[in-house]
Design a protein that fits this description.
single chain; about 180 residues; alpha+beta
């Protein structure tokens, strides 16, 4: 896995720099997301792993992607195929999207609650997290009935457990020590 990360980094950075320069972050995000899904397809994975020429791989990959790739996106696929790096395309996409989030000062936050939260509660959570993290926050909400009550918030390495089950667990740990 770390090998793919190392392989993907320069491609993601180059694509990101080009997208910023041309003002096409949305278009590049869509292209790379689509191309990464194509690269994850079992048939394509088998084809990439086979003994095929870079030209043939590029031709097949671009034909599968169709109009989803512009000329520069097709050039990226061609360069990656020539260097035998198409298997790293999903990681290129992941790193590109991470660079974009950092550039736009945005963070994805997972919010787990015992019951569905209303819009006022979500706005309060988003506002407080934006102030604390100094970034725009995109909330991904889901209901976890095992929490009994309260919320658990995860933003990268930050975890805020304000659930009843979390409080009970902390109380138990304190009593046992």
């Amino acid at each position: 896995m770390s090998e793919l990360t190392t392989i993907a980094r320069p491609y993601a950075k180059a694509a990101f720099d080009l997208a910023v320069e041309k003002g096409e972050l949305d278009q590049w995000s869509e292209m790379l997301t689509f191309a990464a899904e194509v690269a994850r397809n079992e048939t394509i994975v088998d084809y990439i792993g086979g003994m095929h020429s870079a030209e043939k791989l590029t031709e097949i990959f671009v034909s599968v992607c169709g109009e989803q790739l512009n000329e520069l996106g097709q050039n990226l696929i061609k360069v990656m195929a020539e260097n035998g790096r198409l298997k790293a395309l999903p990681e290129v996409c992941t790193q590109f999207l991470a660079l974009r989030q950092e550039y736009e000062k945005q963070v994805d936050v997972d919010v787990f609650s015992a019951v569905a939260l209303d819009q006022a509660q979500l706005d309060t959570i988003a506002g407080k997290l934006e102030a604390r993290l100094e970034r725009k926050v995109k909330l991904n909400c889901s209901v976890d009935e095992t929490l009994v009550a309260g919320v658990v918030i995860r933003a990268g390495d930050l975890v805020i457990d304000n659930s009843v089950s979390g409080r009970i667990r902390r109380l138990s740990d304190a009593l046992q020590s």
